[in-house]
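Re: the request from the purification team.
They wanted to know what the chain is likely to look like in 3D before they choose a buffer screen. I agreed to run a prediction and write the result into the notebook, where they can find it.
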Amino acid sequence: SKTAQQAIEVSIVNYLWPSLTVLAFVIFRELKFNVFIILGLLISISGIIFIQTGNGDFSLGRVVDNFHSNPLSYILAFIGAIIWAFYCVLTKKMGKGQNPISIFFLGVALTLWLKLLFSGQVSLPSLDLNTILSLIVASAAIGLGYAAWNIGIIHGNITMLVVASYFTPIISSLLAMLVLQTELSILSLIHIL
């Protein structure tokens, strides 16, 4: 993203993944459809927009202008949300009680090796001890998160898992507020509830 506003808008696009996951599970008949799913999706998407914009200052025209100035960020965020939704469905359908994550890791590894092969650019930055420790801690957190998610998708209650995932933008917004030393408006706090 080129601006802070674009970063917020791209995060809104990225946080479509829980809604797209619900939709994918309905399409692939892992969840039964009912009218409350549509209502829930609309409420959750509007809540995500209000939470991410902080003060409720959301303009569709500005989003379109920002998209035209930097479409790649928005497109990649949307593709990521779609891929995650299908990953969840495929994990459930292909897994048959087993964790098929090795297939996905193999695909990612092959993709990255192909990217390296075609780009021909290998440049590794110098790494100090703090960077290495941060990388290890972040990798462990991400790995444990994926492991817990996969176990939940394969063996757990999909509805509860996806509903709980709607707290991701809330937690992310609260952490961003702390890290960026900003405050959420009263309107944002109401939308969180």
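For the purification team: The chain has ten helices and no strands.
Please add any questions underneath this entry.
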